[in-house]
Specification:
The complex is a heterodimer. Chain A is mainly alpha-helical. Chain A has 21 helices and 8 strands. The longest helix of chain A is centred in the middle third of the chain and has 19 residues. The model of chain A has no long low-confidence stretch (mean pLDDT 92). By secondary structure, chain B is mostly helical. The longest helix of chain B has 30 residues. The chains are: A mainly alpha, B mainly alpha.
Chain lengths: 531, 315
Amino acid sequence: MEKHVAEKVRIEQRFPSWRELLKPTTEFKPGYYHYSFRISDAKYLELPFVREWNPLDKDWKLPPNWKEIFLTKMKEYLEKFRSFKLFMDICVRCGACADKCHYYIGTGDPKNMPVARAELIRSVYRRYFTPAGKLGKIAGARDLTEDVIKELYYYAYQCSLCRRCSVFCPYGIDTAEVTWIVRMLLKEIGVVHRFTLISIASSARTGNHLGLLPGGIAGALQSVVEDIYNLTGIEIEVPINKKGAEILFVAPSADFFATPHWYVCMGYLMLFHEIGLDYTWSTYASEGGNFGTFISYELAQKLNAKIYQEAERLGVKWILGGECGHMWRDKHQYLATMHEPPKTLEDPVSPITGTYFENAASTKMVHIAEFVADLIAHKKLKLDPRRNDKWIVTLHDGCNYARAMGLLEEPRYVIKNVCRFFYEMPEHTIREKSYCCGSGGGLLTEEVMDLRMRGGMPRAMALREVHRKYGVNYLCTLCAIDKAAFPHLLEYWRLPVAVGGMMELVGNALIMKGEKERTTDLRGEPLIRRD
Amino acid sequence: MIGIIFGVIIPYIAFAIFVVGVVYKFIYWAKSAVPLKIPTTSGQQKSLKFIKRTIYDRFDSPYTKWETAVRMILEIFAFRSLLKNTRYYLDRLSQRDARWLWLFAILFHYCLLLVLIRHTKFFLEPVPSFVEMISELEAFKGVFIPSVYVSGVTIIAALFLLWFRRIFLSRERCISLPSDHFALLLLLAIVISGNVMRYFIKVDISAVKGLLLSLMAFNIPQALEFANSIEPMFYIHFALGSFLLAYFPFSKLMHAGGIFFSPTRNMPNNNRAERHVNPWNPPYKGITWQEYYEAYKDQLDEIAESGYKVKPEVL
């Protein structure tokens, strides 16, 4: 980390003329550009034009007819996605979105304004798909050249698909949609970045992004229950690949290994044991997240299929999903469209409270926050919020479940019931206006660290505000990428705040039958009481 | 000569381009598939009974089609998303109101609406009473002589304000294309020429109405007769207006129609309750359980042998 910490972070704002802005940027700054894919991943996923190439090279070894392919595919996607076609046509460049992008705020790079990011491809659209485009530059149109491709690659992977700009756009233009389609187009000519492709290939093969094999998952879960045993003295049995269970539980695979995800995983297992839930984990569908959604429709579909297939094979009634951000964009907005829900699934009804989750009637997939909130509301859990007294908590709303799902109050309801000190960050940085952690959308990779630290600046500053004002020392988030990204970000911005998930707090507060007196929290740190 | 070109030929052509262009554009958009239901949720989803949704949540994160309709209506008539505008700030004290754009935009669009409503008196005989009423109300009839229409003057101010944003604010200047300036300047030219005609260089209004009514009735000889009797000043306004009509379908001004198609606004957030079907959904390609099982048989069998469960190793 140290080498990335600059003495002073200067945000240099530039305002070039519109002519200047039309010229492709081909100078790739270290810390901002992504490495190219690994051959093995690209081959496994059957991507076109697999070859060695380096974004810093002059020659990207594009296929000879790359331009024709790009434009043909662009025409195809214009027909396939009304969003893309419409968003190419109706932007008025009012600038409402400009300072809503955390990457723009953090980098000052004019091409990181959502409107400018969309203009990168819009200028190509004008040139080849509108009559005015024949006029050229004066109409804001430009020829598709290799330099333009490079620029598209550079900036399409400087967007975390967080959709914050879309909230403020008077026409609802969704940059995530535009960026997504640009990434799809680039994929067609063999231009994809490295990071997500590694995970996508792993997930396609082993069922999860980390590439854990069945034994590894079982081993990880075993370690989790051993930790729980040490903490509570309770021996928990974890069902795995169990046929005939009532519920299939799917969490992001980071929960098996990473920190602080691990404590969330402890929280799940403690809760499920305590309420006696008839559920099962699966090794085949061992990933809630879906990095495919960062690259293309087909890859997204390839990864999320396993959940329904496994639900059908195991004969479960419905599916419960863990704490993850883009997973819920995928499960809420994509899953049931990409695959028809299996007929064997039944209506999602909580076996403990009898609550029918009407809002998940078709997809049959319920969010853990909805499930737990319902348990708490029906007083099915014995909770001691004082066990979380060490933490003065604030909640970061994950971009995807806030702006693509509307899951805002459920986590707050749960948190307020399991801890006693909860403060909100400034109003324009939470709920649907939440700032991204800076590392979503496939950007959670070392090579773009500078971009990530700058992109996370608005969130870090909002956190600093409540840290100074209320002494907040715990940033709660229900997103696995957040949990991986924030520790770095907060170190960079020098904020002594712990990062964790909702289920960790639930696990701390949960009074289990037959547990021994707890002396530490899930992290193994001594309990502190404030009175 | 001016009469026949600018009074008859160009308006017909412009109007035809406008109608065909707009219809074409609507069909062009409607032809594209909507593969995914992607509303941008800006409020609490509908989930559990005890999770309260405020009235704002109901139309910022609509669940039913009625709530979605309200969201669209608010978007169209109140520019709700623009009204949410914030600047980057840290606390409430340093918050500066950033809703100027909303104010200018609302000013412009509502003035334009009023101006267009007032203009129907040139196209309709008899003039509907509400048009008369609106005209009288907004002119504060009797205060000035001749009456000064508030909307006609305000729209100039609003257009200048919108244009100044693009000239004087560095960020907005940077993203403004020539076509953005052009659209504003064209509108400015139209409203200024209209005002000049009303207050300074007067034209024969009854002849203008005669021209428009005969154009609408396709009575070309009569239209020509009227056209030749009108002062040139009118044709500046009329030609610019015609040009705007013809330019409309091919420009960003189509945002007026496009908003209705916007998939992030016009779809309800009931994704998990009602399935959305993608017309071109490709079939799944990937490994099946069987293939997975064969690849990791040993490990999976081991899980099966332990009774499909994992237990802690207690020492």
